[in-house]
Amino acid sequence: MRRLVWLSCCVLFVGSCGGHSGGPGPSPPIQPPQIACPSEVVVKQVPGSSQAVDYPPPTVTGGAPPVTTNCTRASGSSFPLGTTSVTCAASDAQSRQASCSFNVTLSGFTIAATKYDAFGDSLTEGEVGRPSIVQRFIDTPNAYPTQLQASFDQTYPGQGIVVINRGVGGDKVEKTVNAIRQFVPGDKPDGVLVLSGFNNLTDPCKPGLAGSTACRSGIDDVANGILDCIRKTRESSGDSVKFIFVSTLTPPGPTGSQRIDNNAIVQANNRIKQVAASNHAVLVDAYAAFVGHEADYVNVDGLHLRPAGYQALSDVFFAAIKATVPQTPLLTANPLTANR
What we know:
There is one protein chain. This protein is α/β, with parallel strands linked by helices. The chain has two domains: 34-109, Immunoglobulin-like; 113-324, Rossmann fold. The chain has helices at residues 2-12, 122-125, 144-155, 173-187, 198-201, 213-237, 262-278, 286-290, 294-297, 307-324, and strands at residues 34-36, 41-43, 50-52, 59-61, 68-72, 78-80, 82-91, 97-106, 109-111, 115-120, 127-128, 137-138, 162-167, 191-195, 243-247, 282-284, 327-329. Strands 13-10-14-15-16 form a five-stranded parallel beta sheet, sandwiched between helices. Strands 2-8-7-5 form a four-stranded mixed beta sheet, with no helix packed on it. A two-stranded antiparallel sheet has the order 1-4. Helix 3 (144-155) packs across helix 10 (307-324), helix 4 (173-187) runs parallel beside helix 6 (213-237) and helix 6 packs parallel to helix 7. The protein is elongated and about 105 Å long.
């Protein structure tokens, strides 16, 4: 009987008979976050100076939730030609961080023509018009050849492309022909850009005079002069000039003391188009690019251009060059363009 009582006590008070508690132990520590970046991303045959690139997200493990990740530059951002380093970081609720990095590499094209001479008058030189002509102001940084050079540098970096500004304010198209004779043999450009003829029309073709005999004679001079520009380029260059780009004249502004009658410009442009087509020159239709934007592109004198107008002129030349001059895909990015 005494033994039975003792066993009952042992069952009821197991802890006093050598048993142990079954409660939970301490939680294991949460490991800091770990992050692994994707491998290098390579994009070939990029047609411009940059392109949006999507890349896989980094892989993140561990960390006290919530764990956030951030990459600079983000997936979907625009990346320039060359190699750009992307850094990704993970951060957890305990402010612990981990990071990794990888490269995004974009390669573009080489272009067959790397030297260009730009011939013309003050709209090539880069003159900015004023309400009254007291002193000429040449805005060289915004001149279209300068902006064209910048476009080449961005789209074909490290290829040594050169644009030479041979524009001279006040020159009529006949003097543009003389400049071509003078400079093309020594410069030996691959391409020649021509925008000339405004000064043949400024006096005889003022608003309302497009039908006058003097204006019609001025339009003839423009057409004949552009033809001479094309012919003398070929005669003076030997085999160096492979491409000749001829631009139409830009339209007049809404107001200004130097406005040319728009009908006269349209007539001159029709003749320029005929000359370019019959002599295998590449037409650059600046007039079409300006229509509807005259107030934004043409300066207060009604003839010369604002910086936005010179940029638009550069853009239309650049588009014609890219569409005409052969290009070859680069196999890898130019190391000169690496972004570290």
